[in-house]
Design brief:
Elements lengths: L1 H22 L2 H22 L46
Keywords: Membrane, Transmembrane, Transmembrane helix
């Protein structure tokens, strides 16, 4: 039983030594700080957008269709009857 406890204790010390070595690395600390800084900047950009960002409504029902040149919305197109040169319908002669 003691040999398994000794092996377990030795593996625990080895794992803790590896973990402390990885965490004490200067490059890893800098990488963690850089990622944390990016997360903070992204959260601030979401919470408080700057003056150049236009806020869009979250609901699609609040959006108005864009007006096109003929006054119809972007989702609907105004269909006009086909006319001949003199204003008559094309199928009537």
């Amino acid at each position: 039983m003691e040999t398994s406890l000794g092996a377990l204790e030795q593996s625990f010390f080895l794992a803790s030594a590896v973990a402390s070595e990885l965490l004490s690395s200067v490059w890893q600390i800098l990488a963690i700080l850089a990622v944390a800084g990016l997360v903070i900047v992204m959260l601030l950009a979401i919470i408080e957008p700057g003056p150049l960002v236009k806020r869009r409504p979250f609901s699609r029902r609040q959006r108005r269709p864009r007006q096109t040149a003929n006054g119809a919305g972007s989702t609907q197109q105004k269909l006009e009857p086909m006319t001949g040169g003199d204003g008559e319908h094309a199928d009537q002669s």
